[in-house]
Amino acid sequence: MNEFERTKALYHDLHRLDTKDGKVIASDFNLPNFVRKRAAHFINIEEVSFIDLLNFILAFDESIVARQCSYFGEWLPTTKEFREWRDGLPVNGLEMLMASYLIYGKQYVDQEED
Fold first, then answer.
1. Mean of per-residue pLDDT scores for the chain
2. Three-state SS sequence of the chain
3. Most exposed residue of 51, 55, 68, 100, measured as fewest CB within 10 angstroms of its CB?
């Protein structure tokens, strides 16, 4: 999939939230399982802001964010696979996608899937 198609898919996922009986229906957001696992690692860290949580997950400046995270919990280094996924999408759309996933998405990961 080329960059345009990936960006188009990202924004499609962002805008396909639906409601039923006044409640938001959670989307899977088409996130790879390695992204879900990374989010699950950080989701239960207490005493951090929502923005800090996004920064820990996305880790654009890993050395700084890792040091910040060490005050609150265990750091999970990014993998090459994760960095390639993250760096292949526009930052603003990626941040919105992760924020929507954290708010509306599934808060668990099937540890058996890869």
1. 81
2. CCHHHHHHHHHHHHCCCEEECCEEECCCCCCCHHHHHHHHHHCCCCCCCHHHHHHHHHCCCHHHHHHHHCCCCCCCCCCHHHHHHHHCCCHHHHHHHHHHHHHHCCCCCCCCCC
3. 51
